[in-house]
């Protein structure tokens, strides 16, 4: 069973890209003859997906004297969104669409390209951003809880030393016993507001957050594969059961043809990806148990 | 200058709601004669916005013998999405829409209602979820960095005691010196995968995350207000300048009439909200400086 393209895109990281005066987080996949692009800015999530014919046709329109293969065209536009060559890019926002116009070079000749981006489906934003970010927030919060526990253990150790008359040679090394509530309050009233000011309108994911994102999304992908696999097995079992009841020979080929996505599936269909996903230690490599339906009763 | 409704919705928290077999995070605002609803599930973000006439009309259709004010109708449906009364709710997903059918009570009589939800605009998902979650992830990460620093200071204190011959009375209180890299690796390889299994397909935001969310969104709201205010001041200044050059008297009323949203503004327009926002210590109360345009160069 081939992996779905959306799973490949999901495992790509977000990279910050400055285009003109605008900041974006960008996910892009450039195949040999196609590309798929997601751009996140303060207005929303933008998307463009182009295949060979469309790429050829637009290249011709923008560069009348150019004759080049689709592969060469795709190669010429890639640097713009992977960090380099963004100096010659301008943005136009109009009627709910966003056009990025860039001037690059191809075989020593000027080459013009345009990305015509439209708002991505909301499901794409949820799969690519909201769900992983919810998981990442939960993970980071668990980290802080572990660190609180470690701090309390160290305080217990220090307390023991002190109770037995131990003295510091350097007074400045003395720390206050850690109080979680005080830490949180100080953070919310002093540190977080400063952080918000610094990060105002900046979109970023540093290396640790990228790592958490990669783990969260590899999990999402593993779950998607497992669900698809279970659905297919169920369909095959149903077909075999019908065949058995009818007295026919098991019809494997027939079963394969009935593999259609569940009617309510709302996955974004993408061209086959060829980019290698970054290799992080992956939960996908472990046997995935069946999902437990947990009711999570939560504060407020 | 009245606050925009979308700002009120932004400051509402997300609450987990179980409807049938499905888990959602839900944001809802129920006014006297209108409501606005957002529901997040594993398929995406759903929305419904209804005003008095539409509510009356649907109530009539579903309950032919019912005569009730819009206020009473809205009151009857509120509990379904604020935690109570979800036993009598069923979900139908079809053609990209989601219908929640509920049976409640109004003045001792059975009362039927339906929420007809469609996919929310992607910009709504970005404003209500993606941006706050990015900010929250950054905040939690900053917390871990502060805690790492605290742990190192405690290790320095412990080291000083030990170097001066201090002994523990209870050996079990001894801790290992904290090594950030080891902590991260253990977390990524052991703790995080377990957490992912526990939280599989569960959507939640506990009290601490809710607090971070509230701070992040009050900041977003403060920025929106400030930008709108600046745009209005600029427009007024331009009008006054033109008037001055033409020799007219300053035309304040004229300036007020020219207040139109910037053509590229992509804000969701909502009915006026009346729900009181939860009161968290708010960065919005502090003078907000002009945004600095920082290029954030980040590790891939």
UniProtKB/TrEMBL annotation, chains A, B:
<feature type="region of interest" description="Disordered">
    <location>
        <begin position="216"/>
        <end position="300"/>
    </location>
</feature>
<feature type="domain" description="XLF-like coiled-coil region">
    <location>
        <begin position="124"/>
        <end position="169"/>
    </location>
</feature>
<dbReference type="InterPro" id="IPR038051">
    <property type="entry name" value="XRCC4-like_N_sf"/>
</dbReference>
<feature type="compositionally biased region" description="Acidic residues">
    <location>
        <begin position="231"/>
        <end position="241"/>
    </location>
</feature>
<keyword id="KW-0175">Coiled coil</keyword>
<feature type="coiled-coil region">
    <location>
        <begin position="45"/>
        <end position="72"/>
    </location>
</feature>
<comment type="similarity">
    <text>Belongs to the XRCC4-XLF family. XLF subfamily.</text>
</comment>
<keyword id="KW-0234">DNA repair</keyword>
<dbReference type="InterPro" id="IPR015381">
    <property type="entry name" value="XLF-like_N"/>
</dbReference>
<feature type="compositionally biased region" description="Polar residues">
    <location>
        <begin position="269"/>
        <end position="279"/>
    </location>
</feature>
<feature type="compositionally biased region" description="Basic residues">
    <location>
        <begin position="289"/>
        <end position="300"/>
    </location>
</feature>
<feature type="domain" description="XLF-like N-terminal">
    <location>
        <begin position="13"/>
        <end position="118"/>
    </location>
</feature>
<protein>
    <recommendedName>
        <fullName>Non-homologous end-joining factor 1</fullName>
    </recommendedName>
</protein>
<dbReference type="InterPro" id="IPR053829">
    <property type="entry name" value="XLF-like_CC"/>
</dbReference>
<dbReference type="GO" id="GO:0006303">
    <property type="term" value="P:double-strand break repair via nonhomologous end joining"/>
</dbReference>
<dbReference type="GO" id="GO:0045027">
    <property type="term" value="F:DNA end binding"/>
</dbReference>
<dbReference type="InterPro" id="IPR052287">
    <property type="entry name" value="NHEJ_factor"/>
</dbReference>
<keyword id="KW-0539">Nucleus</keyword>
<dbReference type="Pfam" id="PF21928">
    <property type="entry name" value="XLF_CC"/>
</dbReference>
<keyword id="KW-0238">DNA-binding</keyword>
<dbReference type="Pfam" id="PF09302">
    <property type="entry name" value="XLF"/>
</dbReference>
<feature type="compositionally biased region" description="Basic and acidic residues">
    <location>
        <begin position="242"/>
        <end position="267"/>
    </location>
</feature>
<dbReference type="GO" id="GO:0032807">
    <property type="term" value="C:DNA ligase IV complex"/>
</dbReference>
<keyword id="KW-0227">DNA damage</keyword>
């Amino acid at each position: 069973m081939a992996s779905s393209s959306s799973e490949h895109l999901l495992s790509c990281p977000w990279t910050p890209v400055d285009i003109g005066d605008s900041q974006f987080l960008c996910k892009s996949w450039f195949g040999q003859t196609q590309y798929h692009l997601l751009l996140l800015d303060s207005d929303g999530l933008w998307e463009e997906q182009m295949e060979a014919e469309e790429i050829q046709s637009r290249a011709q329109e923008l560069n009348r004297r150019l004759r080049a293969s689709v592969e060469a065209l795709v190669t010429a536009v890639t640097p713009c969104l992977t960090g380099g060559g963004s100096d010659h890019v301008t943005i136009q926002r109009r009627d709910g669409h966003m056009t990025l116009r860039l001037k690059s070079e191809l075989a020593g000749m000027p080459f013009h390209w345009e990305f015509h981006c439209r708002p991505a489906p909301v499901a794409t934003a949820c799969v690519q951003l909201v769900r992983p970010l919810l998981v990442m927030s939960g993970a980071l919060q668990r980290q802080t809880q572990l660190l609180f526990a470690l701090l309390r253990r160290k305080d217990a150790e220090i307390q023991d030393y002190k109770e037995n008359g131990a003295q510091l040679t350097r007074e400045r090394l003395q720390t206050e016993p850690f109080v979680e509530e005080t830490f949180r309050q100080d953070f919310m009233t002093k540190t977080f507001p400063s952080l918000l000011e610094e990060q105002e309108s900046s979109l970023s994911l540093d290396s640790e957050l990228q790592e958490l994102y990669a783990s969260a999304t590899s999990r999402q992908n593993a779950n998607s594969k497992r669900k698809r696999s279970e659905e297919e097995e169920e369909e095959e079992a149903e077909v075999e059961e019908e065949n058995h009841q009818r007295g026919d020979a098991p019809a494997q080929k027939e079963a394969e043809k009935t593999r259609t996505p569940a009617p309510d599936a709302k996955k974004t269909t993408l061209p086959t990806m060829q980019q290698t996903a970054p290799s992080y230690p992956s939960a996908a490599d472990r046997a995935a148990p069946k999902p437990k339906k947990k009711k999570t009763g939560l504060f407020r």
